[in-house]
TrEMBL record:
This is Leucine-rich repeat domain-containing protein. Gene3D superfamilies: Ribonuclease Inhibitor. It comes from Phocaeicola plebeius.
Length: 97
């Protein structure tokens, strides 16, 4: 499985939900409430929910992200949220940050 999208009815994704899913490269969380994405996944692209206001500590630890789509509502990114993410070429933030 290389990609996955979740329905609007999903309100939370628990810790380590994608741990060791190295073939998973794309996750669409645009209609969910993000809690955490575990480290050591093959994730390259993540679309975050429009309502997301905060990204927690180590949310994307050690992932292979190349693209993240941030919402205009995002206000806070905790320390080490992208620790070990070395392939992300650039980040564009909204004026709310």
């Amino acid at each position: 499985m290389a990609s996955v999208a979740f329905p609007a009815s999903l309100k939370e994704i628990g810790g380590h939900a994608f741990e060791d899913c190295v073939a998973l490269t794309e996750v669409d969380l645009s209609k969910t409430a993000l809690q955490e994405i575990s480290s050591e996944t093959g994730l390259k692209k993540v679309t975050l929910p429009a309502s997301l206001k905060k990204i927690g500590s180590q949310a994307f630890l050690g992932t292979h992200l190349e693209e993240v789509v941030f919402s205009a509502e995002l206000q806070e990114i905790d320390d080490e949220a992208f620790r070990g993410v070395v392939e992300l070429p650039s980040v564009t933030l909204s004026n709310n940050m």
